Amino acid sequence: TRRGGELLRLVRASVFLDWRPVLHELSFAVLPGQCWVVHGANGSGKTTLLRAMYGDHPPALGGRILRRDVAPGVPLAEFRRHCGLVAPHLHADLPREDRVLDVVVSGLHSSVGLDAPPGAAEAAAARRALRAFGAGSLASRRLASLSYGQVRRVLFARAAVQDPALLLLDEPFAGVDAGTRAALRRGIERQVAAGTAVVLASHHADEWPANASHELELERGRALWCGPMRGRDGG
Question: What is the torsional sign of CA 65, 67, 70, 76?
Fold first, then answer.
């Protein structure tokens, strides 16, 4: 079972990129077992929001992003030990010649690449995570030898290997075939049912998990709706 209480809270959080405002005073909290879908047109700020939640973009002066167990002075890496991320930039960032098993183990360290070979317990955890997303047979392959959809399954396993309290998923189904999309969506739904909080960015309502509980609709970085699910019309 997951600990109760907020995992993350945004308080009037605004984000600027290259001196340009991308998010405007967003305020909401994510609790264990919640599944948030973030939707809006391209350019509405979905990716920036998830990167800000993960810690890649700090909020502007006057806003805050509060993370459980991360008080002032505590390294952000402590939060990332309990937070998995699937995002398009990881496709380019991960070393293409690495073994799949090593890529998944790197999720235990929130790192790109490994400084040392994985231990037995780490390798076992990685194999379990790969099996959970239908990629168990890929463990010994090189990332460069995989199809786009197979790499996406590996990224999901990497995000889930540490049994995270929070999963941040940025357009996780983009570019994959229907079979992979269905398998990944079932995996997300199992994570939510087990108490993992999920924040998923997608403007295709037919991709949203069946057990999605909350939604955030963005338009040009502002919240049009932020709260319990209203329906599945998308936007």
Answer: negative
Closest CA to 62 of 96, 38, 27, 34: 27
φ, ψ for residue 167, nearest 5 deg: -115, 125
> pLDDT tens across 164-215, in order?
999 999 999 988 999 999 999 999 999 999 999 999 999 888 889 999 999 9
Residues 6+ apart with CB under 8 A from 220: 24, 43, 44, 45
What is the CA 174 to chain-centroid distance, rounded? 14
Q: Are 113 and 161 in contact (CB under 8 A)?
A: no
Q: What is the pTM of this model?
A: 0.90
Q: Cα Rg for the chain, rounded, in angstroms?
A: 17
Q: Which residue has the tokens 């609709």?
A: 217
* Pairing relationship of beta strands 197-201 and 35-39 according to DSSP bridges: parallel
